[in-house]
Amino acid sequence: MHKAKIRLAYRIMIDNTSTFMWDKYVWEDTFKEYLMQNQQFNSKENTKNTFRELLTENEKAIQLHYLVGIAANGYVEQLKGNFHRVTDVLGNNYFPFVNYQLDIINTDITNISKHKIGITFFSPVLTLIDIIEGNYLVSKNCEAINGLETLMFPVQSHLSICYYQKNTYHDYF
Fold this sequence. Notes:
Elements: E1 4-14, H1 21-37, H2 51-57, H3 64-69, H4 73-78, E2 82-87, E3 94-96, E4 99-106, E5 116-122, E6 126-132, E7 135-139, E8 151-154, E9 159-166
Antiparallel strand pairs: 1-5, 1-6, 1-9, 2-3, 4-5, 6-7, 7-8
């Protein structure tokens, strides 16, 4: 029986210690974008160096999450809807995603090494069949006719159910 329709989210954090080349490119380009975009919200008379300071001074600076996130768009598109660092238990299938959200954890216009961002990847709606031995048993197919092809993703750090819709009685038939 199908328990629910869910959406999974997987979050990575990128900073100056990241070792993947993809992360390094995203890190550098989002810092450059932050340097350009923060000028819209930062005061010339009372410049705030860090993102957190800027947020306390100007609540509209919250838009920087989105504006800086645009710099990562081309890199995310290169992934073609599959995040390759998260595999199913067989190591064959990758974490599918349909969108992402970038957030600035913190940054400092005077020191690139303090730049830190998070990117959360969101899966399409999946059918949650069960959780077996610490693994999400899911299917990309939400309309079962004669069975479902399944994937098993290990329950792990930074992977979470971010949307849950319990099936009602008539959903089982």
